[in-house]
Design brief:
The complex is a heterotrimer of chains A (531), B (321) and C (340). Chain A is mostly helical. Helices cover 79% and strands 1% of the residues of chain A. Chain A contains 25 helices and two strands. Chain A is globular and about 85 Å long. Chain B is α+β, with helices and mostly antiparallel strands. Chain B is 24% helix and 32% strand. Chain B has nine helices and 19 strands. A six-stranded mixed sheet of chain B has the order 7-8-9-3-10-11, with helices on both faces. In chain B, strands 2-1-4-5-6 form a five-stranded antiparallel sheet, covered by helices on one side. The mean pLDDT of chain B is 86. In chain C, strands 1, 2, 3, 4, 5, 6, 7, 8, 9 and 10 form a ten-stranded mixed sheet that branches. About 3% of the residues of chain C have low confidence. The chains are: A mainly alpha (531), B alpha+beta (321), C alpha/beta (340). At the A-C interface, helix 13, helix 18 and helix 24 of A face helix 1, strand 2, helix 3, helix 8 and helix 10 of C.
């Protein structure tokens, strides 16, 4: 009787159960991996545990530490400056500071090592002019610290974006109160602004850490043995797929714990500051301080984008004559096609889950909504493996459906976050009013949530598009016949040590990504200005 | 009866029911105020009536149709109930006209002009919500609810977000609109003044139970218990024998001759038309009104008619604490 | 909404283009060089058979083959490491090729005795040394790299790299586990720096003076020596190539092959064998040597000029399946001896 009552009490049953079934389908590859975790031998796992995993874990943590510190510095400081001061070039920096996101991290790594290497432009230049100085800079740059900094350069925009929005939304009231209570500007920043922005910064940092955990190409090149290297050592070298699955599940568990701790600590300090105050008034800066500020903002842009971009552009020009433009055109087409199609599907499915979570009064949906983000915590190749195991013996493997299905699992979390923050901003009475005015759930979604979350959907589309465009392992494992993308081609040239030939493909990736980011930026602006 | 609520029970956690047992009915065209403290479950009640929340047991009947009974549940979008929320949620992506005509059946379009005139929104049609003032937003929400001729109109704290100057005119306005359209209305509020001025009946809700449901005058004069009495205005407490009695300040008269009630004046408040006197009798704080000021620390005599004495059960006071 | 749905179904249906052209052959390939595309194009022009390719990492392709089972559309599995073909065969996804034409085309030493795969090209893992700081006479064998005279002088990439794993497997096959392990720890203690970077980076590090000798693939030296960039050319020219274990009675230099296996479930077996026959033919092998720096598997074809300039060498005649068979042992030796 109690159960029947509970069942009756669930609102919008069809939607709730639909979302649960859909979530199970999405989680099926992960579930299969977990089943495999418990079956099969543990020889390789134990071997790795004994011999390497401790080292690998330490390396991973060290790399995460360096990358995080770099990304935090490069992200937060310019975000603070740009949110609070006007100076020459402010608008310019506000646009270009997002751009490194368009550069895949392995391209960042390969490119910088080429630039810094003995035969690269810098060392060559000094060898001719100042042999003494050339000797000083003739070093081995393939170091874990350098890798951390390079990854920081490639990933800081995640933190920049998050803190930029947060800093702009924290109204001047908090700052004024804090100043009035006797805190200096710097104290205000550390004691008021940073704690208030912690959820935003943390969500950015979470993305950075996930990216580092998933990084394979660059860490392998730098000879830094991270946990992911361990997963692939089990698979590619020992040929033990189960060992790889087991390691990936352990990684998943660690990420989940980390996530749970974060959620738990966050739940105690939920901040709602959107509605509190008007926007911060931007103050002008002049003279030498302006110069310093410009310098600070230039660093991430210069090293994160302009230098690698120029180098790649130069390589492109040099190898222009031998470029196969038919192929370039075909790959660009493929890339745009698969990225936009899967991004559209991904954002609508993300919206669906978030919408059901909102209209449902059942706790199930908040679990469902968190669980479907699991895919983001698994390396792409492992998701590919899960999908292969799921579609074992079916003729679906090697079709676009499966490829897009795998992207969906991997990137749902990416699309979810901007949509979620937008949906959460609207009071629940908006939905109540809609229903009161006669909308059924489908119409509520179509006529209300689709238009009022339009900007968020576009933002989600852009970030998902860029991620799919840069995606490598899933595309490689599950690709249909004769299907190359810009990313796979770039990677194939890069690992075969033909960097100049890969240049034009990288260039197109970066240019496409930059264009998309410019669109995104104009929408973020609108969001900030509207709210 | 037009709206009939019977034995309504609502809880999210069965240990702490929000509505323990609620039964009342409303006649067609009546405006009733649902009065309760903040957090007492007033909004939940409205959501139950409108179907946005499911009820745990009981029946709701509107215009001789069951909305809730056993496993009958009419979906919110199929109830003809207008709901104006506390924070006036107009859809931010639509202008005023699009908001009012949102999801509107064809047959009601002809009413647009009438509704706009009624709510005085004629000149704002193309404006977006963020370009409207609080009062305009609220009238827009009311217009949006009324244009589809609801069988019942629910207003959730319609005055709480308005400043006091427009609040008064809004009250009149809502009263006028509701009466002109003969719309049966439940107005939820925590402020007794809002309720007294315009309602046909007041329902006092406390601790999950209906305390009293009556017209304002009767309620004021004959409160069902001390809670209802206090909520409607100040009460002066006195002991006669072992029993506790109450008397309303306006029923107390300042007399020049000696009487049984000698009050020492503590404070005299000027209120324009008269003075409100705060004093002490028998260690209890008393309030009454006087045409002339009385200086502090002075002792004065007051008196009242026996029929104005109000008596409650002595446990009443403790019960609500 | 309806428009959107229409668009959606349109896109989805556009995805599933029918794959019913009859004359085709499907490849799962670890190779992804420009020369391959050229070869397939030539083959199609010649025979009218369309060549479809999926390019990915060999182990992931094996996993895909395993799970697709009988439904697999793949006919051929192309790798750049004999070890992976051994793994594929062990996983039961290959079948015997059995074509006399192919056997006639290719060098006997490179052949799989069981005929599960056919080689197309090969490359040697050689030692390069600084022309300035190392005398050729100091170099002799792989085993000699354990000598303390190389302390802080040896450069090599990490043990995650399949070519290093293949080299170590060949040593295990030739010398046994214990000897190889001793050798490995001695070599590790001679490292000039932690293993990292690409083969090309090892050569650059010699040019930069960070080490004196490096273990690299002959293929990458060819690439470096044909670079458009003057500085890279200089780096390439600052080193010489040395083929180890060439002395009388010694086994020869370690080689690894690019090779093709025929999948068990191959739906277009006839076309598949035609393609292997074509790729091992004199005509196609000329294309390989003219467009890459690999050695041809066909005895009638000579390698490119740059490759030829390093001179002839004796190859290690070890059965190449050993490169897969001894791989797990090799890996454990890497890990035990601290070769990162």
């Amino acid at each position: 009787m109690e159960i029947i009552h509970r069942f009756f009490a669930i609102e919008n049953k069809r939607w709730v159960f639909g979302s649960v079934i859909f979530a199970i389908i999405l989680l099926a590859p992960v579930i299969i991996l977990i089943i495999n975790f418990f079956s099969g031998t543990t020889d390789t796992l134990l071997y790795l545990l004994d011999n390497l995993l401790f080292d690998y874990t330490l390396n991973t943590l060290y790399l995460i530490l360096i990358t995080s510190i770099t990304a935090l510095f490069l992200g937060i400081i310019p975000a603070w400056i740009i949110s609070n001061y006007t100076f020459l070039g402010r608008n310019f920096f506000d646009i270009v500071l997002y751009l490194p996101l368009a550069i895949p991290s392995y391209i960042m790594g390969f490119t910088y090592i080429d630039i810094l290497s003995y035969t690269g432009p810098i060392q060559s230049f000094f060898r001719e002019r100042s042999p003494f100085f050339a000797e000083i800079i003739n070093r081995d740059y393939l170091q874990v610290e350098i890798l951390g900094i390079l990854l920081g350069l490639a990933l800081y925009p995640y933190i920049y974006t998050a803190s930029r929005i947060s800093f702009s939304l924290i109204g001047s009231n908090y700052i004024n109160i804090s100043r009035n209570l006797g805190l200096s500007k710097i104290q205000t920043f550390f004691k008021v602004i940073l704690p208030l922005s912690r959820p935003a910064i943390f969500s950015g940092l979470f993305l950075v850490i996930m990216e580092v955990l998933n990084e394979y190409g660059a860490v392998k090149y730098f000879g830094v043995n991270t946990f992911t290297i361990g997963i692939f050592r089990s698979w590619n070298s020992f040929g033990d797929v189960n060992g790889a699955i087991q390691l990936a599940c352990i990684l998943l568990l660690v990420v989940l714990c980390f996530f749970a701790i974060d959620r738990f600590s966050m739940s105690k300090s939920k901040f709602y500051y959107q509605k509190n105050t008007q926007l911060n008034k931007v103050k002008g800066l002049g003279g030498s301080r302006a110069l310093m500020v410009i310098l600070i903002c230039s660093i991430p842009f210069l090293f994160g984008f302009l230098i690698p971009f120029s180098f790649i552009l130069n390589n492109t020009i040099e190898s222009f004559a031998i470029t196969n433009f038919d192929k370039l055109f075909r790959l660009t087409n493929n890339t745009i096609y698969v990225s936009s199609l899967s991004s559209i599907i991904i954002i609508f499915i993300a919206l669906f889950f978030l919408f059901v979570e909102r209209i449902s009064n059942s706790k199930i949906n908040s679990y469902v909504s968190s669980l479907i983000s699991l895919g983001y915590a698994l390396p792409g190749a492992i998701i590919g493996l899960g999908v292969i195991l799921l579609f074992s013996n079916s003729s679906l493997l090697g079709t676009f459906y499966v490829l897009i299905f795998a992207y969906l699992i991997r990137f749902l979390a990416v699309a979810k976050s901007p949509i979620k923050s937008s949906i959460d901003k609207h009071p629940i009475t908006i939905d109540d009013t809609g229903r009161n005015l006669g909308l059924n759930p489908l119409n509520l979604l179509r006529r209300l949530h689709l238009p009022i979350n339009k900007f968020a959907l576009i933002s989600a589309f852009v970030v998902t598009f860029i991620d799919v465009m840069k995606e490598l392992p899933i595309t490689l494992i599950l690709s249909p016949f004769n299907f190359d993308t810009l990313a796979t081609q770039t990677y194939q040239f890069a690992i075969e040590e033909m960097i100049p030939l890969s240049a034009i493909y990288s260039l197109v990736i970066i240019t496409l990504g930059s264009l998309m980011l410019l669109i995104l930026r104009s929408f973020i602006d609108k969001q900030i200005n509207v709210s | 009866m037009y709206l009939e609520v019977k034995n309504l029970v609502k809880f999210f956690d069965s240990k702490y029911p929000i509505i323990k047992d609620l039964s009342f009915s409303v006649k067609k065209g009546e405006l009733i105020s649902f009065l309760g403290e903040s957090g007492s479950g007033k909004t939940t009640f409205l959501k139950c009536i409108s179907g946005l929340e499911k009820i745990n047991s009981g029946t709701i009947t509107l215009n001789s149709k069951y909305l809730n009974k056993n496993n009958i549940f009419v979906k919110p979008q199929e109830r003809k109930i207008g709901f104006v929320f506390q924070d006036y949620p107009l859809f931010p992506h639509l202008n005023l006209e699009e908001n009012i005509t949102f999801n509107l059946e064809k047959k009601y379009y002809s009413k647009l002009e009438y509704i706009l005139k009624l709510t005085g929104l004629k000149y704002f049609l193309k404006r977006f919500p963020h370009e409207l003032s609080g009062g305009e937003q609220q009238r827009a929400c009311i217009a949006r609810a009324l244009i589809r001729e609801p069988e019942l109109l629910l207003l959730d704290e319609p005055f709480s977000n308005l400043d006091s100057t427009i609040k008064e005119s809004m009250k009149e306005e809502i009263f006028k609109i509701v009466k002109e359209t003969n719309t049966t209305t439940i107005l939820v509020t925590h402020d007794i003044n809002d309720a007294m001025n315009i309602s046909d009946k007041i329902l006092i809700f406390k601790a999950g139970i209906l305390q009293q449901y009556d017209n304002p005058v009767k309620m004021y004069c004959e409160p069902a218990n001390c809670y209802c009495a206090e909520i409607l205005g100040d009460m002066n407490k006195l002991f006669i024998g072992n029993e506790t009695y109450y008397v309303r300040p306006e029923n107390i008269k300042h007399v020049n001759k000696k009487s049984n009630y000698k009050v020492s004046v503590e404070k005299c408040f000027f209120q324009g038309k008269e003075y409100r006197i705060k004093g002490r009798f028998d260690n209890e704080i008393w309030h009454f009104f006087s045409k002339k000021p009385i200086s502090e620390k002075k002792h004065v005599y007051v008196d009242f008619a026996k029929k104005d004495l109000i008596y409650f059960d002595p446990v009443c006071k403790n019960f609500f604490k | 909404m309806r428009k959107f749905l229409l668009l959606f179904t349109f896109i989805i249906s556009a995805c599933s283009t029918n794959q019913e052209s009859i004359r085709e052959v499907n490849l799962y390939s670890q190779r992804h060089y420009a020369v391959d595309e050229l070869q397939y194009k030539n083959f199609t022009e010649k025979t009218g058979i369309k060549v479809n390719v999926v390019k990915a990492n060999a182990d992931q392709l094996i996993e895909r083959l395993k799970n697709e089972g009988d439904n697999s559309p793949a006919d051929l599995f192309v790798t750049v490491d004999a070890g992976k073909l051994y793994n594929a065969r062990e996983a039961g996804v290959l079948q015997k090729i059995e074509s006399q034409n192919i056997n006639k085309n290719i060098l006997t030493d490179l052949r799989d005795p069981d005929e599960f795969w056919a080689p197309i090209t090969y490359r040697s893992r050689v030692i390069v040394y600084s022309k300035e700081r190392v005398k050729e006479s100091d170099l002799s064998t792989y085993e000699d790299l354990a000598d303390p005279k190389w302390k802080n002088r040896i450069l090599v990439r990490s043990s995650s790299n399949a070519y290093n794993q293949a080299l170590m497997s060949s040593l295990v096959a030739n010398l046994g586990v214990e000897n190889t392990e001793d050798w490995s720890s001695a070599v590790v203690s001679n490292f000039a720096r932690d293993p990292k970077g690409s083969d090309r980076d090892q050569v650059k590090a010699i040019a930069a003076g960070q080490g004196d000798i490096a273990i690299v693939n002959s293929y990458y030296i060819g690439l470096l020596l044909s670079s458009e960039k003057e500085e890279e050319l200089n780096a390439g020219n600052s080193v010489s190539v040395f083929f180890p274990n060439q002395g009388v009675g010694e086994r020869g230099s370690h080689i690894n092959i690019s090779a093709i296996g025929l999948t068990k479930s191959s739906p277009n077996k006839e076309n598949a064998i035609k393609l292997i026959e074509y790729l091992t033919s004199q005509e196609a092998q000329e294309v390989y040597v003219n467009n890459s720096y690999e050695y041809p598997a066909n005895s009638l074809v000579e390698p490119s000029d740059i490759v030829k300039s390093w001179g002839d060498f004796k190859i290690d005649k070890l059965n190449l399946n050993a490169l897969g068979e001894f791989r797990p042992e090799a890996l454990k030796i890497f890990d035990r001896t601290g070769w990162k």
